Here is the input.
Amino acid sequence: MHGRSCVPRRTVRSNRAQQVPSRQGLAWRARRNSDLPVTVATIAIRILDVTDRPNPLDGAPDFWLLDRSTVVLMHYAEDGTQTGRELHEGDPAPFLEYQRVAVAESVPFREYVQRWPSSLTS
Here is the structure.
């Protein structure tokens, strides 16, 4: 798998009433996944928090971009349960642009966590 890349994109909004638990769960899951002893592919987790600002990717579907050429569209229910996925047969160019915007507008996970250290580590 050397030289391959995988870029997931999933938009999640914080519910103000559940904001801290959501961030705690996110921190736990990312720390748990980053502690795996063997990693076939590395995923650089970045957070694009759209809680207090417009979403620069509003309208873009959730997707995985594999090797900058293969797009898998991800489908989710309102509660976040995955309901399916499908291989996108069209041009990957729009998804490359979504990726560019997502990286430019997001921050690395560790930087995001440091903004709320007490609520994420308790």
